[in-house]
């Protein structure tokens, strides 16, 4: 088995109903550590954005302090999908409407990064905006519209009758 040359990065944003210290949000806050620990030990997990507190709730990527974000990289789209929808993460994920309001536009984005690259919040926000503006593409996609890693892309096809020629 070869080491992947690319990892999938993800950014997810959420609009909290209340500040994190509000009683409505305490059940969510109490699940942060166990869910992050689950991610850290999940197959395919590579990296996640976090502060010294061990989560990303203190990272401000938007002017609105109620917009929370999380960002991570994974070995593949499949391992990320398994964590999101097939692990214990799904329990708080299904309850998210208790704590969060819908966001305008896509709530998450996926994109490929070279293995070892830790994306910045600015980079991630640009990918999310691109998905919102242009729809899914190899540069910004979602689980429903997946694109292969750049080193897995098939070579461009030539049209029938078109031949490659070397310039003299």
What does this structure look like?
By secondary structure, the chain is α+β, with helices and mostly antiparallel strands. The protein has helices at residues 26-40, 77-86, 90-94, 121-134; strands at residues 6-16, 45-48, 67-74, 100-101, 108-114. Strands 1, 2, 3, 4 and 5 form a 5-stranded antiparallel β-sheet that branches. The longest helix is centred in the first third of the chain and has 15 residues, at 26-40. Residues 164-168 have low confidence and may be disordered.
Percent range for β-strand residues: 15-25%
Shape: globular
Low-confidence stretches: 164-168
Distance between the termini: 42 Å
Mean pLDDT: 92
Record field, number of beta strands: 5
Write the layout of secondary structure elements.
Blueprint: E1 6-16, H1 26-40, E2 45-48, E3 67-74, H2 77-86, H3 90-94, E4 100-101, E5 108-114, H4 121-134
Antiparallel strand pairs: 1-3, 1-4, 1-5, 2-3
Quick structural gist:
With 168 residues, the protein is an alpha+beta fold.
Key traits:
5 strands; five-stranded antiparallel beta sheet; about 170 residues; alpha+beta; 4 helices; disordered C terminus
């Amino acid at each position: 088995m070869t080491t992947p040359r690319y990892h999938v990065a993800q950014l997810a944003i959420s609009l909290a109903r209340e500040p994190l210290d509000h009683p409505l949000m305490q059940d969510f806050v109490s699940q942060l550590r166990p869910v992050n620990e689950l991610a850290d030990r999940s197959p395919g997990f590579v990296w996640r954005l976090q502060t010294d507190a061990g989560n990303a709730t203190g990272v401000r990527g938007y002017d609105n302090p109620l917009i929370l974000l999380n960002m991570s990289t994974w070995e593949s789209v499949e391992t990320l999908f398994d964590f999101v929808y097939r692990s214990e993460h799904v329990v708080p994920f299904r309850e998210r409407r208790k704590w969060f309001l819908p966001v305008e536009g896509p709530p998450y984005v996926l994109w490929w990064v070279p293995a070892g690259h830790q994306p910045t919040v600015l980079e991630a926000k640009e990918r999310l905006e691109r998905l919102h503006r242009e729809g899914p593409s190899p540069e910004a996609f979602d689980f429903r519209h997946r694109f292969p890693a750049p080193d897995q892309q098939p070579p461009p096809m030539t049209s029938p009758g078109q031949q490659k020629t070397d310039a003299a």
